Amino acid sequence: MVHLRGGGVSVTIYGIKNCDTMKKAFAWLDKAGVAYDFHDYKKEGVAKGDLEKWCKAAGWETVLNRAGTTFRKLPDADREGLTERKAIALMMAQPSMIKRPVLDDGKRLLVGFKPDDYEKELGGKSARKKAAR
User: Domain of life of the organism in this record (predicted)?
Assistant: First the structure.
């Protein structure tokens, strides 16, 4: 596990390597000097317990990527009447339906990539320098 420099907090970013949003998140983390462990859930899968934890923390509606091609190609019967249980089953079967990235440091969970949220929650080199003064 890789740690945030100076913070001692483990950061894991979950997603799919070739996703454009993931590439933006990797670039932000690298530029900010935040070390992380990458978990490619397309190759390595995702644990049901992790999905349940993310859905509890952020809401399954946030974790499920309804805008993606994989979800849009589902039969109407699979897309209708969604519940948390059904959404988790869909995401377990096809991890591409999980919104990317999911960043977990054990205390905070960030779903999707918004630079302002990353700056606020993780800070960057400049934010940590200010805090060290």
Answer: Bacteria
